Amino acid sequence: MKLSLFQDMDSCCSLRAGFRSTMLRGIAHGAKDTFTLLLARSQCCTPGFNFSSLRTEVANRSFPTHSTYTTDTTSREENKKTIESLSRLSVDIRKIRRLKEWVLLQDVAYVKEIAGILREMGADETAVANILERCPEAILRSPAEINSQRALWELVCQNEKQLIKLIEQFPESFFTTESHKNQKANILFFQALGLKNNIITRFLTSAPNIFYNPVEKNKTVIETLQKHYLSLGGSDANMKIWMLKLLSQNPFILLNTSTAIQENLEFLQKNGFTDHEVLQLLSKLKGFIFQLTPATMQKSMLFSKNVFKCSDQELRHLVLTCPALLYYSVPVLEERLEGLLKEGISVAQIRETPMVLELTTQIVQYRIKKLSALGYDIKNGTLESLNGTKKDFEVSYGKIQSKKERPIFNPVAPINIED
């Protein structure tokens, strides 16, 4: 049964009652974005994946509590031997006490051994101390575990110089030794798939969770994506390139299930997007569509439909022009629309250039302020000058500035004097 954008209108309540008086009072305040992974600090017109934005999450997840460890710090004493060994390495014990004191309470630690392995790989004393301060759990790993992890990462690193540099930058990822068998199987699978080693190292450091999956699970997701790519009209000749590019842009698609992927694609098709348009969206969204749900996409589209007062066909055109209308949640769209309206920008202007919704309110305010200083009136002009990445904006700003500073006459041109 065809899914209508008008069905389940009760969901429109999420657009907030205050939205009915948007033109008079602006749009009601929205909550913070629930899709942090996809949306945080988006500054360009096409969604991009920022691996570094996930380092905190990786750090928090990298070390699930091992059965032989305890994070209970009550009624226990610090291991004096561990303290002494770390002190000799100039490690800041106070920092470890403040952040991960439980590490200092463990009966068994391999401080000297782990420091020795790091030195073997080329780390100097300062680097060793920094690594152990950032990731004190490393001393709880046995030398055998670390040597196995070292051999594993050497499969994709050019040399030990590159390896120790990665460990300095991402110690939590390296010292996560669980699922070693799965990690190795997935590295070999990615290599066989055609991913370059530098891409795989980026996965290891910033998206390590995908290596903990059984390799069969990752293979199933890849096969599902390939099947849908072909069913949507993609060619066999381009399939491998498309697949590798998609993975490089967003490896977290491997954490999804085949069922979720199919449901999201079916949602787009049921809402009137052609196979070619669905492929377009997959490329523009860089796989992030698989981290949404039909319910959230439905709400976002209903919201946009009401804001811009458009038909289903017009809405599809807007979504293809600005995928933000699909993958941003309603609270985020509300917040950004409200920010634009407060600057005196009309809904009609936003509909003409919806890509401006890719920008955070703070970025929009900053750009409007810079343009206003040049005498550019954004209320009566086009929003194109606000769009794009930081580089795109600087180019547009430079052109407007150059035009403003250009002399109204040519000072070297001959002067016509009538006799």
Which percent range fits the helix content?
Answer: 55-70%
How many helices? The count is 23
**What is the N-to-C succession of helices and strands?**
HHHHHHHHHHHHHHHHHHHHHHH
Overall pLDDT confidence: 81
How many angstroms separate the termini?
Answer: 85 Å
Which secondary-structure class do the elements indicate? Answer: mainly alpha
How is the biggest beta sheet arranged? none
Q: Which runs of at least 5 residues are low in confidence (pLDDT < 50)?
A: 1-67
The shape is globular
Q: Would you report the number of β strands?
A: 0
Oligomer class? single chain
Content of β-strand: under 5%
Q: What is the rounded Rg?
A: 27 Å
How is this structure best described in words?
- Helices cover 56% and strands 0% of the residues.
- The protein contains 23 helices and no strands.
- The protein has helices at residues 22-25, 36-39, 55-61, 80-88, 93-100, 111-120, 125-134, 143-153, 160-169, 171-174, 180-193, 197-206, 215-231, 236-249, 258-270, 275-285, 294-308, 312-321, 324-327, 330-342, 347-352, 361-373, 390-405.
- Helix 13 (215-231) packs across helix 14 (236-249).
- The longest helix has 17 residues, at 215-231.
- The chain is globular and about 70 Å long.
- It starts with 21 loop residues before the first helix and ends in a 14-residue tail after the last helix.
- 32% of the residues are buried.
